[in-house]
Design goal:
alpha+beta, Aldehyde Ferredoxin Oxidoreductase,  A, domain 1, Aldehyde Ferredoxin Oxidoreductase Protein, subunit A, domain 3, six-stranded mixed β-sheet, globular
């Protein structure tokens, strides 16, 4: 066993039984760890048709195969479950310190089923695992609960803690799981599943080591990558106010070529994801006014207020996830903003800034800092929450909601005070907040009156803050991935940076000066690119890898070499990509088994440019999204009309030997 621990911990919250299960080497070699191991466990343990918030659903915390091996940028963990948002496969990705802690306890994953009679938390240390009473922290926000449980931990080592806040306790379908006082596995409703089980937290204090087949080779790869990141720096003259100018100049070109992904590292080192606050406005990447506006609406007089330089002025220290050498995070001082209610917050990510900035026509940066912290503490997904508030504002603007419906709130564009109050109501499930607390799809069911035209989602999940009308492959992945609406799966930009064609025989090469118009055509080559991106992202999620390392390029973040050095498998890149194909296919099979029609994940018409915008950088652009989805399915070896994996593909990938039933 090299790179993985070879077993998982199973916890039945109904019976209080805790047992270990050995995982055969073959499973790791076919599915890695992380999301692959999670898919294997969930498919074989969740009964078909299980209620996502019922006792039969399984919630897993899984680490990555390379986490702890000496590799850098591999500190991510994933929560997996049947999603209460989509009714199908659910996962959420997070950083911090939990991923290595899972393996230091001797496991590659910890899985829960059943429902506890009263609030509990799991405590694991070198002596074993036990369920402990959590009544005293139930009702506390995620930061308070983590601090309390951390003080109660016995031993000298600082524990790693994953915990839910009030949003998950109240079963908000857009709630997540929090660790490190504000890093969130936010998507798929994983927090609601944890809350439904009355599981407040997981506290881990292990000390086992992780072995590598060739630790010196792993060390050399890490040293090489770290040196490249260290040497990737921006000239001192590059300030935040230059970002929209750079973006505007780059967007005017009619062609694109492959790029060196390492050029993203300096931006991430200096600002983190918030460089996109302004960089994403002139090029059409950042959605505006519930996806119905553009930079013409949220113009310089607005977006200058979210200049990333203004945010990092409050940054007191950089934040690094485990094994990270980029350091995109930060801790910011907000004492004056909150009048002492809170002292610090994790630096808001671009997704949060845009979801509560341009998407709502809000230019009040202080309100965004405040919203960031209350969402972190409550454990509510900022992407879904922002999209839901945008939906509510547009409903109010069009007379579907009135003051009588909104508890007196003036839900108008850019009304920061009303936005803050609405978020608090959603967290507390109070009044109109109760109507909106489960996201836009459920809100439409409750409000009706034609409000679905303002509900931006794909398969029930609200989309990340990147516009598919600017990057068509992003729109495709919003619709075609087994967890829809996710901006972290793939895109044309990611593909151009990753340069997979240097290593993978079937990955199409990006030709120099390719017309951008080709991205808007459903072609076989485009489908192969999207499949390659999906397969590679599965590998990243199987090793515990960071998407920002992935984007720097396969020639820099040498995943295939890392895997061979850690495991001794000596597989080719094509063989590893086949593992990614197997992982993605198994997740799709889970959805099919649960009665989901993949075409139902097609993104909302507005998100596809139907009708097209009339102004701004995405004016006149429409995605042939259904044709793109069908081409993607065919290139995966799935049925081109239904999106279901074919029996031939299932057999070829040997999935029929890994699962209890084949659909």
């Amino acid at each position: 066993m090299k790179g993985y621990m070879g077993k998982v911990l199973l916890v039945d919250l109904t019976t209080k039984e805790i047992v270990e299960q050995k995982i055969e080497d073959e499973i790791y070699e076919k599915l890695l760890s992380g999301v692959g191991l999670g898919a294997y466990m969930l498919y074989n343990n969740i009964p078909k048709g299980a209620d996502p918030l019922g006792p039969d659903n399984m919630l897993g915390f899984v680490s990555g195969l390379l986490t702890g091996t000496g590799s850098v940028m591999t500190g991510r963990w994933m929560a997996v479950c049947k999603s209460p948002i989509t009714g199908g496969w659910g996962d959420a990705n997070c950083g911090g310190t939990l991923s290595p802690a899972i393996k230091q306890c001797g496991y590659d994953g910890i899985f829960f089923k059943g429902i506890s009679e009263k609030p509990v938390y799991l405590y694991v240390d070198s002596t074993g695992a036990e369920l402990r009473d959590a009544a005293h922290v139930w009702g506390k926000d995620a930061v308070e609960a983590e601090e309390t449980l951390g003080k109660e931990s016995t031993g000298r080592k600082r524990p790693a803690i994953a915990v839910i806040g009030q949003a998950a306790e109240k079963l908000s379908l857009i709630s997540g799981i929090v660790n490190d006082k504000g890093r969130i596995a936010a998507r798929s409703g994983v927090g609601a599943v944890m809350g439904s089980k009355r599981l407040k937290a997981v506290v881990l204090v292990g000390s086992q080591s992780v072995k590598s087949d060739n630790p010196e080779a792993v060390k050399a790869l890490s040293k090489e990558y770290s040196a490249k990141v260290k040497n990737a720096n921006l000239p001192g003259i590059v300030k935040g106010n230059l970002l929209p100018i750079m973006s505007s100049l780059m967007s005017k070109g009619k062609t694109y070529s492959a790029g060196d992904g390492m050029m993203s590292a300096p931006m991430m080192k200096k600002w983190g994801t918030i460089f996109t606050n302004t960089f994403g406005m002139p090029n059409g990447d950042a959605p505006v006014k519930n996806w119905g506006g553009s930079v013409v609406d949220y113009n310089k007089s607005y977006y200058k207020n979210v200049n990333p330089d203004k945010i990092i002025k409050r940054e007191e220290k950089k934040y690094y996830c485990y094994s990270c050498v980029i350091g995109c995070g930060g801790v910011c001082d907000i004492k004056d903003i909150t009048k002492g209610e809170f002292t610090h917050t994790h630096k808001p990510e671009y997704e949060t800034v845009n979801a509560f900035g341009a998407l709502l026509m809000n230019k009040d940066l202080d309100s965004i800092f405040y919203i960031n912290e209350i969402l972190n503490r409550a454990g509510m997904d900022s992407i879904s929450a922002g999209n839901t508030v945008a939906y509510a504002i547009e409903c109010y603007e069009n007379g579907i909601l009135t003051k009588a419906d909104t508890d007196g709130l003036e839900l108008t564009w850019g009304n920061a005070d009303a936005i803050v109050k609405l978020i608090k109501k959603m967290i507390a499930r109070e009044g109109i907040g109760d109507v909106l607390a489960d996201g836009v799809k459920q809100a439409v069911k409750r409000i009706g009156r034609g409000s679905d035209k303002y509900a931006m989602h794909a398969g029930g999940q609200e989309p990340g803050m990147h516009d598919g009308r600017m990057d068509p492959m992003m729109g495709l992945h919003f619709s075609a991935d087994p967890t829809p609406g996710r901006h972290t799966i793939g895109s044309d930009t990611y593909y151009n940076y990753m340069q997979l064609w240097q290593y993978v025989s079937w990955a199409p090469k990006v030709k120099s000066r390719t017309p951008k118009a080709e991205q808007y055509i459903a072609s076989e080559e485009g489908a192969l690119k999207s499949v390659a991106g999906s397969c590679y992202k599965q590998l990243i999620d199987g090793i515990g890898g960071c998407i920002f390392a992935m984007i720097t390029g396969a020639q820099h973040f040498r995943v295939f070499d890392y895997l061979n050095a850690a495991t001794g498998w000596n597989k080719t890149p094509d063989e590893y990509m086949e593992i990614g194909r197997r992982m993605q296919t198994l997740r799709q099979m889970f959805n099919i088994r649960e009665g989901i029609e993949p075409v139902s994940f097609k993104l909302h018409d507005r998100l596809a440019g139907v009708p097209p915008l009339k102004e701004g950088p995405n004016a006149g652009k429409t995605l042939p999204i259904l044709d793109m989805m069908k081409g993607h399915w065919r290139a995966f070896g799935w049925d081109g009309d239904t999106g279901a994996p074919t029996s031939e593909t299932i057999t070829k990938l040997q999935l029929d030997k890994l699962i209890k039933e084949v659909v």
